[in-house]
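Example 335, ligand aspartic acid.
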Amino acid sequence: MKRRNFIKNASLSSVGVAVGSSILNCAENKKEDSTTTTSKTKASLPLVIATWNVPNATAKAWGVLQNNGSVLDALEQGVMIEEADEKNQSVGKGGRPDRDGNVTLDACIMNKDGDCGAVVYMQNITHAISVARKVMEDTPHVMLAGKGAEQFAVKSGMKQENLLTEKSKKEWEEWLVEKEYKPIINIENHDTIGMLAIDKNGDISGACTTSGLAYKIAGRVGDSPIIGSGLFIDNEVGGAVATGLGEEVVKTVGSFLVVELMRQGKSPQEACEEAIGRIVNKPNSNYKNFQVGYIAVNKQGETGSYSIHEWFSMTKYQDGKNENYQSDYYLKDKA
Ligand code: ASP
């Protein structure tokens, strides 16, 4: 029920507050009111946002940035919290398996220079995000898959372990009774962790990690490790990450779309809404049966978040405050 315990906040644009570490100029304020005391406001940095209600992950990342750690260290260490948390059944250790009972992980990371790394369909290594980072930093490649990714992780010093916990195993065995396979993601049953961060210099990077759709066909890969779909960063514009039914995100190249819409002048909130619109407005879209959510941040430190269904949320750590915001959603006010 923790996702239902949201702070209701329909407007997700962050109005920055000038503090010591602020460097980004937001738009000129046209008039002064009780909340606007200067002609210019600045976003308070560092800033970390993440999909869902993950205060421990955002706190970790923000702490790293606050202590002048690198933005990639912040993102990696932040999402590692969720990868290691066995209670989170959509990421890392404890993730729900595919239909054959194997937990397979997808992850990617992207930095301010447009460099990126990803792993897909990787087994037996908890911290997929660390492997993705190593792919980016230690190889000439962008993506490693399956056994190759696992071998690379082991050669890089990572520990192999069984990722299938008793709880996830038991639930999978219950699922086996009916074996109902439909590629419809339960509206609340997915938790890909996507995280975007801006460091004190104003540079943006992002990370995304998941065990993907529960009981998927063996070999299935979703949007989360696909640069441009699950995650995209353009340090001149902003960044976006996705969660939800990956097939729908891939078909619309969702995160790239959100960033390109921001480049055209849309706010992060408007860009997320239009990207969701591209999915729900497709002919024959089955959107009432699946969830997709986006979060985004622009170079000015404004943020946005939007989904198809209710109960998607974004955690934001900024200015010493770590808060969860319920996202506005397409089906609101629609029968
Ligand atoms: N986007 C993920 C996938 O399709 C699922 C999720 O967000 O939980 O693999």
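Summary: The chain has one domain: 5-333.
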